[in-house]
């Protein structure tokens, strides 16, 4: 992406979503990096990049990005849930449980409640 315009970044973001759906997390990250460089406050792009890091097994990068999202949106249940999955995948069960519980408390979706270990 040579142009640094808002429309170019929107296109990059949408293309990154498609790449992640197509199971190309590295390609998604490559498209998201310039978007986030130009718009570091864009939480949606950061959340998408965190998911791409997670799916690409870059757990430390995913964790760092999820924490950035949660600093800005501490009530983002989905970010807590996927951070919990990231920590769980890294064998950090107790830390993961905390985020699963926060996710379930913020949004009692069945998958969040189940991950938190709350009775259904």
TrEMBL record:
Transmembrane segments: none annotated. Keywords: TPR repeat. SMART domains: TPR. InterPro entries: TPR-like_helical_dom_sf (IPR011990), TPR_rpt (IPR019734). It holds the Pfam family TPR_19. TPR repeats lie at residues 77-110. This is Uncharacterized protein. It comes from Streptomyces oceani.
């Amino acid at each position: 992406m040579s142009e640094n315009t808002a429309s170019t970044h929107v296109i990059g973001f949408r293309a990154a979503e498609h790449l992640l759906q197509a199971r190309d997390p590295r390609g998604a990250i490559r498209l998201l990096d310039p978007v986030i460089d130009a718009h570091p406050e864009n939480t949606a792009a950061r959340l998408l990049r965190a998911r791409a890091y997670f799916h690409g097994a870059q757990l430390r990068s995913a964790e760092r990005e999820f924490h950035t999202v949660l600093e800005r949106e501490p009530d983002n249940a989905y970010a807590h849930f996927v951070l919990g999955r990231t920590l769980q995948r890294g064998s950090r069960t107790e830390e993961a449980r905390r985020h699963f519980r926060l996710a379930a408390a913020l949004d009692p979706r069945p998958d969040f409640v189940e991950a938190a270990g709350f009775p259904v």
